[in-house]
Amino acid sequence: MFNPVRALAVCALALASFGAATALADEPILIKFSHVVADGTPKGQGALMFKQLVEERLGGKVKVEVYPNSSLYGDANELEALRNNEVQLLAPSLAKFDQYTKQLQVFDLPFLFDDLEAVNRFQKRAKGRQLLRSMEDHNIVGLAYWHNGMKQLSATRALHSPGDANGLSFRIQPSAVLEAQFKQIGANSQKLPFAEVFKALQSGQVQGAENPWSNIYSQKLHEVQPFISETNHGVLDYMLVSNSRFWYGIPHQVRVELEAIIDEVTYVVNKQAEAANQTDRQRIADSGKSQLITLTPEQRQAWRDAMRPVWEQFEGQIGSDVLKAAEAVNRKQRK
Question: Where are the alpha helices (DSSP H) in the chain?
């Protein structure tokens, strides 16, 4: 039998649900951008620039909240938080993705890339872009590569040839490739948090390290490292990543606009990082506290030849196709 009271209640409930859904649809998409460095760094500036451009172009549709200095999540738990959609944007260093893909180890391979321009060419080509999608099975999608810089070797003795590193102990990030890199030239390695590097070098716990110029200067490592060889032997980069399900769930047109903004921000971040490294290199040279060693082309080739077995050791994990694509950007440059 028809019950008018019940019918009215059902209608009221339906209208309320519709109203709630409409209100929810009108809410802006929230993107929490968490990172572990200061606002003044290229990465920190990139996060703030992304927030500003989104507010200017997508105000009302998308809202961005930036959490610097590990204020929301730190190194230890940020990727798990991303996979759980508790945060929507991160920019960890490439070495942090080892448990999700081995292919990104290509950037750790020593003396694979001639210079930063070679790295740029690789990252912009098909295979480099493909690596951004290499973790989608783990609900992580890469959106861009952000530079920190090419790595240099610092030590308590002058490093001109691979044999000069024999017997020294170097601080490394957790990476099987980096461990193999130093073992290949008769050196030891210790995995230490970045915050502990200065004291470890100062005390003699380790005698060397590998860092971009900006890291060396900002952490005052040149004050406890009498020699720095300009090797440019590897790249320390970040990958801007999002939660796959979240990212592909954004309406297409909004996502296209966000990707365009990311392209703009990436260009600026990478230019800032390059400029910072050149400025800090000069500051280190001017300080007189560390002797800068420039390798001749022949010396650098000797390092590359000595390290080539490391490439072969990890080729199976990384993929021969990825390795060949990386080598190809160097061959093109030499023509």
Answer: 4-26, 42-58, 78-83, 116-124, 126-131, 176-184, 197-203, 213-218, 244-249, 252-287, 297-318, 320-334
Residue 180 contacts residue 216 (beta carbons within 8 Å): no
Structure-block tokens of residue 266: 């990436």
Q: What is the pLDDT of residues 169-193, one digit of tens each?
A: 999 988 899 999 999 999 999 998 8
d(CA 26, CA 228): 56
Helix (H) or strand (E) holding 61: none
Q: What is the pLDDT of residues 282-292, one digit of tens each?
A: 999 999 999 99
In the prediction, which pLDDT does 129 show?
A: 97
- Which domains are assigned to the chain? 92-334 (3.40.190.170)
Report the length, in residues, of the chain: 335
The widest CA-to-CA distance across the chain, in whole angstroms, is: 95
